[in-house]
Amino acid sequence: MREIIFDTETTGLDPASGDRLVEIGCIELFNRVPTGRTFHAYYNPQRSMPAAAEAVHGLSDVFLRDKPLFSAGVEELLDFLEDSHLVAHNARFDFGFLNHELRLCGLPEVGMHRMIDTVAIARQLHPGAKHSLDALCSRYGIDRSHRIKHGALLDAELLAQLYIELTGGRQIGLGLAQQEEKGTVQVELAAIVAVRPVRPARVFQASAVELERHAAFVATLEKPLWLEEA
Questions:
Q1: What confidence tens digit (pLDDT) does each residue in 44-103 have?
Q2: CA-CA distances (angstroms) from residue 197 to 15, 194, 200?
Q3: Domain segments of the chain: what residues?
Q4: Does the annotation place 146 within a ligand binding site?
């Protein structure tokens, strides 16, 4: 099962008020295991960056002004996403901005049936607790010491680790069910089968030269045990 963990950075909180997407980071998982494939891009939002937003992610007008428009790289992004389920933290926020940019390009939106929200999963598993990415990383012992500011790819990498923990941890393929006092989250994990090429059996046979050298060596031994009579 292929899934994409993704995160976005934006100029603000509401695309309907003119806020735009400025960064997206994606991590590919297959059967809950990172494959090493990623997608990362910055976009020129064609508007100024509010100071409050820049304080969160550090992306300034100067940094973004020479970056491509979202429309220039949208096909590459869609090729990476394919038709996979998309996992995000507070996913309606990220889906809202992604679909807003797709609408501006005249392209179909990403269906909400593809959305997996890790906040919703965390609320089921840990009702009443804090569900921010930072709080959940602390709960599951995920190192975020290198996270000084928000960054889409960095946050997607942290979220990938968190999603694996929320859906059964590293014990892939065991069909674990995680029990909680106020409900049950059933997690079905597919087994990973390593496919290896069939190789012909190796022939381990001494050559004539090797046999000759071995006989010469044995002849130098004084009363070898295997030649003594029982």
A1: 999 999 999 999 999 999 999 999 999 999 999 999 999 999 999 999 999 999 999 999
A2: 51, 10, 10
A3: 2-167, 188-225
A4: no
